[in-house]
């Protein structure tokens, strides 16, 4: 699909940067996007947390490119579908949230999009909508009669979100089974309310999304389209947005700007060019030049990647501050800008493995012990003993109440000792 020669600026850009996995009726969509008339497309985000993580960033950037090409992006927040839970990619039913939690999550997620999209009343101004506005008003019997009649159980059982769960002999509740109907109904409502032409999302959603195309055609008699992005993993095989320490959150309240910047700075060499194309707005020619050399030149490309991605998520000033902090840290400089962990240090000291976990420099005591054994722990740039049972003692701080604790070359934290 990515080798298709598109005529529209938008699809050509998305294809060249590696966004496109599948497109339904690509020639027809290409023609529609070449007409000069702004077209609307949406991506849906369920409200399962008060922040999105970088695993969502691919579709957020998709919306940004959609707007930059002169079309209208729609952010669909799942205030209604969150009450059901998307079974895609899950072995068990998702945790069901109450109304208060959903409202809190909605407020947190909605703020993130202000960094990426322009919201105004122009034909290309972004729109945020909540599917609770229509889903929570549905009469169940009428919904079954008017919408359910258009869905084949035989076909639904072939969709990955259902088929894979059943093949693993893991339970799928009737509640979850309804999710694909609601997702299709969202597309129908957005087509009615906003003349939405395209639904976009991850490739694992293809079955649900093409069901939406079919429903719009049956009910509205209109042709609509689907665009999916690839499900990304890093060169090391890890799922985007996940690390040993958990999700890489996009909210600064969940993850410091420095740690967010550092996640991208630590990208594998094999991922740098691909990530620059997908997660920044740098021209392709500039990306090619950045990645043309290896070694130190590629390290420079990683810094640029981290700064550009962070600038989109948190603002240019915050990104440059994170870059400057990293430069000071790597040069053995000060503590400003590092993640802070406050400790009460008794006279008997604290085991370093506990301190490393508390500081977020190790995800478990066993990992912390390995770091100590391998000589990978430093206090104020001085190596810590290789003993796995080593303790951080008051005398180690030389009478100071602040110190830099490091794990390896790239993980650092500021220790603040409380009296």
Structural notes for this entry:
This protein is α/β, with parallel strands linked by helices and 419 residues long. The protein folds into 3 domains: 9-229, Rossmann fold, CATH 3.40.50; 256-330, Tyrosyl-Transfer RNA Synthetase, CATH 1.10.240; 340-418, RNA-binding S4 domain (Structural Genomics Hypothetical 15.5 Kd Protein In mrcA-pckA Intergenic Region, Chain A), CATH 3.10.290.10. The chain contains 18 helices and 15 strands. It has helices spanning 9-17, 26-33, 57-68, 99-113, 132-135, 140-146, 153-156, 160-167, 174-177, 179-194, 206-220, 257-265, 272-279, 284-290, 296-314, 316-330, 352-358, 365-373; strands spanning 22-23, 40-46, 72-78, 127-130, 196-202, 225-229, 242-243, 246-247, 340-344, 350-351, 377-379, 382-383, 391-392, 402-407, 411-418. The strands form 4 sheets. The chain has a 6-stranded mixed beta sheet, with helices on both faces. It has a 5-stranded mixed beta sheet with strand order 9-15-14-11-12, with helices on one face. Strand 5, helix 11 (206-220) and strand 6 form a beta-alpha-beta unit. The radius of gyration is 24 Å and the shape is globular. The mean pLDDT is 87.
Look at the helices and sheets and give the structural class: alpha/beta
Cα(first) to Cα(last) distance is 62 Å
Instruction: Characterize the biggest β-sheet.
Output: 6 strands, mixed
The coarse silhouette is globular
Number of helices: 18
Q: Quick check: average pLDDT?
A: 87
Rounded Rg: 24 Å
Placed side by side, the strands forming the largest sheet appear as 1-6-5-2-3-4
- The proportion of strand residues reads 15-25%
Helix content: 40-55%
Count every beta strand, where a strand is a DSSP E run of 2 or more residues.
Answer: 15
CATH topology of the largest domain: Rossmann fold
What is the CATH architecture assignment of the largest domain? Answer: 3-Layer(aba) Sandwich
The CATH fourth-level homologous superfamily of the largest domain: HUPs
Number of domain units: 3
Low-pLDDT windows of residues: none
CATH class of the largest domain: Alpha Beta
């Amino acid at each position: 699909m990515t080798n298709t020669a598109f005529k529209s600026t938008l699809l050509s850009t998305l294809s060249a940067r590696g966004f496109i996995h599948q497109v339904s009726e690509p020639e027809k969509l290409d023609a529609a996007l070449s007409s000069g008339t702004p077209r609307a497309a949406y991506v849906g985000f369920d409200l399962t947390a008060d922040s999105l993580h970088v695993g969502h960033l691919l579709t957020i950037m998709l919306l940004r490119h959609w707007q930059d090409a002169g079309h209208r992006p729609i952010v669909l927040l799942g205030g209604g579908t969150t009450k059901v839970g998307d079974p895609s990619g899950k072995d068990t039913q998702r945790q069901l949230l109450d109304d208060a939690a959903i409202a809190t999550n909605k407020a947190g997620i909605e703020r993130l999009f202000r960094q990426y999209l322009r919201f105004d009343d122009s034909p290309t101004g972004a729109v945020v909508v909540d599917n609770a506005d229509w889903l929570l008003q549905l009469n169940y019997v009428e919904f079954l009669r008017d919408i359910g009649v258009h869905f084949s159980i035989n076909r639904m059982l072939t969709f990955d979100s259902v088929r894979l769960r059943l093949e693993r002999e893991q339970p799928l509740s009737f509640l979850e089974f309804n999710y694909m109907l609601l997702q299709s109904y969202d597309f129908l409502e957005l087509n009615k309310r906003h003349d939405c032409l395209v639904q976009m999302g991850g490739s694992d959603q293809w079955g649900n999304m093409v069901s939406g195309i079919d429903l719009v055609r049956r009910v509205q008699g209109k042709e609509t389209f689907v665009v999916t992005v690839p499900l990304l993993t890093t060169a090391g095989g890890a799922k985007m947005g996940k690390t040993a320490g958990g999700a890489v959150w996009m909210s600064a309240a969940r993850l410091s700007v420095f740690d967010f910047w550092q996640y991208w700075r630590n990208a594998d060499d094999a991922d740098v060019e691909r990530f620059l194309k997908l997660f920044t707005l740098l021209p392709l020619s500039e990306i090619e030049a950045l990645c043309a050399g290896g070694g130190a030149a590629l390290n420079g490309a990683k810094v640029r990647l981290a700064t550009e991605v962070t600038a989109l998520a948190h603002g240019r000033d915050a990104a440059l501050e994170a870059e400057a902090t990293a430069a000071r840290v790597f040069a053995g400089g000060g503590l400003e800008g590092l993640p802070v962990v406050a400790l009460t240090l008794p006279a008997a000291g604290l085991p370093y493995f506990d301190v490393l976990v508390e500081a977020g420099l190790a995800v478990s005591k066993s990992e912390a012990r390995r770091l100590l054994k391998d000589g990978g722990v430093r206090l104020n740039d001085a190596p810590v003993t290789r003993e796995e049972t080593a303790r951080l003692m008051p005398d180690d701080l030389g009478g100071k109440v602040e110190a830099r604790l490091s794990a390896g070359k790239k993980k650092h934290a500021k220790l603040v000792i409380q009296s």
